[in-house]
Sequence to fold (748 residues):
Amino acid sequence: MATTRTPAQVSLRDRARWFVELATTPLVPGDFWEVLDPMRGGANPRGRVVAVRPETRDAATLLIRPGRGWRGHTAGQYVRLGVDVDGVRQWRSYSLTSPPRPDGAITITVKAVRDGLVSSFLVREVRAGAVVHLDQAAGDFTLPLVRPAKALFVTAGSGITPVMGMLRDGAGGLGDAVLVHSAPRPEDVIFGAELRALAARGGLRLVERHTAVDGRLTPERLAELVPDLTSRQTWACGPNDLLDALQDTYDAAGHGDRLHTERFRPVVLAVGEGGTVSFADSGVTADADGATSLLDTGEANGVLMPSGCRMGICYGCVIPLREGSVRDLRNGAVTTATAGDDIPVQTCVSAAAGPCHLGI
Amino acid sequence: MTTIQKQEHSPIAHLTAEDVENLGRELDALREKVIASRGASDAAYIRKVIKTQRVLEMGGRAVLLASRYKPAWFVGTAALSIAKILENMEIGHNVMHGQWDWMRDPKIHSTTWEWDHASPAEQWKHSHNELHHTYTNVLGKDNDLGYGIMRVDEGQRWYPAHLGQPLWNFINAVFFQYGIAAYDLELGKNLASKERRRNPAFKARLAATLRKVRRQAAKDYVVHPLLSGPSAPTTLAANLTANLIRNLWTHSVIMCGHFPEGVETFERTSIEGETRGEWYLRQMLGSANISGGPLLHVMTGNLSFQVEHHLFPDLPSNRYQEIAPHVEALFERYGLTYTTGSLPKQVASAWRKVIRLSLPNDFLKKTPARPAAHRAVAEPARAAVAGA
Fold:
């Protein structure tokens, strides 16, 4: 960065920044910018929902215009999206269904899952104008720059979403491409009309499997539908058992490297009484019962735990829960974090509710 | 007031251990009710307060760019004073208590918030959240009882230096943010011996505070005056005034929390093996409210609901008002006194106590009152001080 500027410019710029930061201390200038423009400020880039389009009866596409700090994406990648549901910031990962667009906007397509707090909120309650929080796009489930001569996409349910981003981006450049997509019924196929139109134009061979009638897809059935599957560069996204079976098939054929998979995180975590607590940064792992606080467990195992009142009032013992579930010993409320969440918890009144990783 | 354990007629003598535990359970249930109903409207409330505060601060400072014109000076100083009070009370104090941690917004969180105040958040959270809120009104444990410079309870031993405490209290009010910073550093104790002065942990905390003080002072007394150009001297005066108003206001509100007559104190030994119910009971008797309207509540950071705040320090401040009638009803059912009064009444009450206790106990009374009770008070008090 500094190589493009002369030292005098650097120092002038740094001094200006130092002066502005001193004028806003203990806040940062962004905290005031945010008041004037909600798309600025904050630790993460933000995005404004421009439109919400229904796709099926339980899926919708959100067109989002990212604000400052968004660095763009490659088709097939996903983004972690943060929304406030009932006042609480919740983060979930969604595949980007848009290719990079000239106007910089992105789309995600969300299927409302049963008891899904965030997915239901995004499909049914979010309106145009809402501001959401974004992480940078991530993931290596993408097409190579040199498109493969023969490609196969195997998707099920909302597993179509990352592949849709690729097809929209690379359909023209893909030569011999096959998509085998499973959904319960024809009307449940997300992007059904667009996929059928694409197939009709000859951009792709589309095999729709309707599991309510045809049953679940197996590698054997897939081999019948696409006899040369292991000779194709393959991108697959769907249930874990399907992906595992595919991996075995490709490995057995000696072409494990041709299979690219994207696994959606399982949403159901083991919640129970007690569990293995890993104090990740301290390199300590300990078993804890459901009645012992994380603070006591850490201290008993030599972890330098921050602590205070030890009764849940002072917040001096708060550390991030990286992954797993903990239970509030006062009211039994369970807090669950998945990778990337880092939810701060009060260790003096929380016990393990299943395996959990703490950021200390 | 002497400590509750040494009073002839204890206000809690009528409560059985079972009563106290029932009281605790009722308060736990009240807390759960609020937690279960926390949601989007609460989140919208704190964000609105923060936005209002920032608009007021930016607006006030912008108007002060022309502070050499008198109307601009008055408008700008008023806006900045209100902004600073909101920032310290309804926002800073409450966010640092973790009242808004449940929103999982990293920008409005007890672990990340830094306030417009001389004392760094980290140190304030230790002395306030951890020590004061855990050991509320326990002689020798809760240093908020007189901040180590004053005697605010008969149970605290009198020294001749206490004669000057009305003056110390006034000086503390004027420089309140620095007083708190010194208090959070435990400056009196830590400067007393060479060993303590050289303690690396103390030196690191001192350096952090000095850095914060420098930046705070540079902002209000150098940067913004410089930006005002020809209005520099008047902007400097305006910023000094805003900080003074904020100091006097917060000092008054905070005096009303635990110093007015009717607030009880506790012996050091009384909290050994204390149950949840007993802790609640101590918070109930050790705090006093200020009665008033919505504007008073927001400007005091809802510390006008000091009793409710001490029972539930991590519940969102905007909810104290709705639980106050339930809490007051609980006081009544358990035969306890809910201490409250208007701001002028409570401030006067606290000041009267500061002045009265600048003299030895019962000095102003013509005849030595209740000599037996007096002795009984003096003995354990000495023990408590010696043990401290």
Summary: The beta strands of chain B are 289-291, 340-342.
